[in-house]
Specification:
Order of helices and strands: HHHHHHHHHHH
Distance between the termini: 24 Å
Number of domains: 2
């Protein structure tokens, strides 16, 4: 089960596999054109090498499809991008900032928050794999460790218990006893809950401005004037006066529990 949980982490070492691919191809070519025809142990070994190399490359290229899922579901990206979406909706600025800007900002904030985890992953898995000290399966198991530590430190106990019960597993004694396929969905719904909590807090002051503007226009008899036309400038003014992006980014980064 732990090997299945570590499988998506192979995508993180895709570049390493691509770098190693020319070496495998060269070794296969050096075996000679008749190595696959001779029915002996040496020929069988050469044939196995010829088959194993392309299969590994195909597996690594297939694993590239897991990279977006890893970034979205196993890092802090989900909470950040949802909160930024709430901010834009609360401001009522339609497509400003553009979705590409919000996703880009969320991605770089994710790298900023995840830097200690990525450093540990590089030191424990990628560098030993490049140096040839460990094989791919062991490197994958080492790589999943730092990510599991980050997810566990930001997962609510109630959500983890929910998925443990649904998977019909007993109460684990340590984090190592929690399967990755149980930890990941528990982490995701925990991130969504916290993102919605932050979004509610962000909505309150802007909702008050909308209510004040709407009540003012109604009392003045200007019912034909959309309140949104007047409330958006006031909300933008409030957001700028309180240095909204600075405050939001600072508190959003600080909301993640240290490992």
């Amino acid at each position: 089960m732990r090997r299945l949980g570590a499988l998506p982490i192979l995508a993180l070492m895709l570049l390493v596999g691509v770098m190693a691919a020319p070496t495998l191809a060269q070794d296969a070519d050096d075996a000679g054109p008749t190595a696959g025809v001779d029915i002996n142990q040496e020929g069988a070994s050469d044939l196995e090498l010829r088959v194993e190399g392309p299969l590994q490359i195909m597996l690594l290229l297939t694993m590239i499809t897991f990279i977006p899922s890893i970034v979205i579901m196993m890092t802090c990206f989900t909470r950040i991008v949802v909160v930024l979406g709430f901010v834009r909706t609360a401001l009522g600025t339609q497509q400003i900032p553009p979705p590409q800007v919000l996703v880009g900002l969320a991605l770089f904030l994710t790298f900023f928050v995840m830097r200690p985890t990525l450093v540990d992953l590089n030191e424990q898995a990628i560098q030993p794999f490049i140096a040839g000290e460990v094989e791919m399966p062991e490197a994958a198991q080492r790589a999943v460790g730092p990510l599991r530590m980050f997810m566990a430190s930001n997962t609510r106990t109630e959500d983890l218990v929910l998925f443990l019960e649904m998977s019909e597993r007993g109460r684990p004694e340590t984090l190592a006893d929690v399967p990755t396929h149980v930890l990941v969905p528990a982490f995701v719904i925990s991130e969504l809950r916290r993102a919605f909590e932050i979004g509610f807090i962000l909505y309150v002051p802007f909702l008050i401005i909308d209510m004040v503007i709407a009540s003012t226009l109604l009392s003045m008899g200007m019912m034909m004037l959309p309140p949104m036309m007047l409330s958006v400038p006031f909300k933008l003014l409030l957001f700028v006066l309180v240095d909204g992006w600075n405050v939001l980014t600072q508190n959003l980064v600080a909301s993640f529990a240290p490992i």
